[in-house]
Specification:
Elements: H1 2-13, H2 19-33, H3 41-55, E1 59-67, E2 72-74, E3 83-85, H4 89-94, E4 101-102, H5 103-110, H6 115-124, E5 127-135, E6 138-147, H7 161-193, H8 197-202, H9 207-212, H10 214-219, E7 226-233, E8 238-245, H11 259-267, E9 271-273, E10 294-301, E11 306-314, H12 324-366, H13 375-389, H14 394-405, H15 416-419, H16 427-434, H17 436-445, H18 454-458, H19 480-493, H20 505-514, H21 522-534
Antiparallel strand pairs: 1-2, 1-6, 2-3, 4-5, 5-6, 7-8, 7-11, 9-10, 10-11
Amino acid sequence: MYYIIKSYMEAIATEDIDMDFNISSMNEKFNMDALDNWTTTIGLIQSVITLIEQTIPDISARIFYHTREYHEYREIDKEGVISIPDDSILIGCLSMVSEPISLQKFFADFQIEDPIIAEILKSAYKGQEIVPIVHGFDLLAFILICKEGNGEPTEQIEFSAENITFLTNLASRLKINLYAASIADKRQRELLQMTQYPFVLQRHDSLKKVYDEMLEDLASQIHFDKGIAYAFDEDRNILSPFVVKNIDQPDFELRPGQGISGQVFEGGKSIFVPNRVLHPSYSILREEKFIDGSFISAPFGNEKTRFGVITLIRSQNNKKSFSVEHRYMLEIAAAFIASEISNRQLFAKLDASNFNMVESLTRALEAKDAYTEGHSERVTKYSVAIAKKLGYPEDKIHYIRYAAMLHDIGKIGIADAIINKPGRLNDDEYNAIKSHTEIGYRILSVNPFFKDVKDYVRYHHETLNGKGYHHKKEGEYPEEAMIISCADIFDALNTDRPYRKALSKEIIMQEMEKNVDVHYKREMLDALIEILKEEKQL
């Protein structure tokens, strides 16, 4: 060690080593190495600005970074007043420059005629030198070296050769870090985009559609060539495909542990494989031969129930393989899917419980009148069937189901003597009967659960011409109430009442025809007739 130090000191003494140069180079390299310690893009940019301003006196540095989601270059550390579109002439020309260049010379050499940007960069920012950060032909960012102080913006700074060398070396080093940062930003945006995925699932009006549209929903978040989703049948211990995309003949089943998807399901963990053909174990499996390239696979379920497994494939000829980030995205999506299924199943159970309670209440009411026993159940059955025939969405059908079951709940406030009177009602009695729609409305208004149901109950005795109980015309009350009215009138004509026997089907249909465009629309009766024919009642 003594001889090494002695030789080094002798070399310095004989000027074989330029001490100042080496210390300067070592400091510069040390400072640039510190740039590798970035954890965020904005942190990296702030470190670069600090390094430049410490190295070159009397200047300030601005960095315009390419924010791809906005298609522009801007100062993300300051959110400055200027942003430059990534399809501008300035950006196109700058991407062809490989070294620092005077801003004035750059505009002159490329004959860029953009007076607004030129004025901002030269006068507002007092820009002097521009340093492009180019990776391939992609301009990741550019550094604008600006004059500091109160001098004239047009007064040029003389940059030393060392300054230019420093900026050149910095640009070369920075393009690697900024490229890595841009990739990290892209991956982070993709993962953050998954926070919107629950809204994609929630737009479906039934659990069936959540299953049916599962792969299409995933395709909006993750690009893939082929995909398959299996549902687990616990009773049979079988995984059955319920939806596929771009896969021929998917009519097969797997047992847990069988095939790639079966192994993922049994293991309970997601996987990412860059190429199945090169994988030592997956390449020799006989099942799921359609998995022929890069793939990701994830199980979905909750703590108590395993629902199934999803496998997405990028084919062998697809040059863009999946990455581990795509596995994370599928994991997130699978968790959201499982949560949505669990929530909907729980809601279905609660809804069934609520409906059973409503049904029991209705039966208790109808027990007062032997003639109307089962009336609300039949009206519910026909109302729901009509709504389905007419293509109503699931949420509307759900409300119709409750409203039909509760359409006569207001009769709880009508005297039994009036309800069961065998003869014709007088005016006072008729007005009392008519009040049942308003009584029902008030009963349901107390509970917010029925906020979408109460108007159907209130207006199920309206007419399109405004001569009903509340004198509402078509367009002034929900047409769903017309569906209930259609089913209600049919069942009333088709059953015995205190004042008459059930009518024949021929007379019923004549009466129903008379009420078209009075109590309900033509298509509603047509749907009911179709249902009755299917049931062989007509």
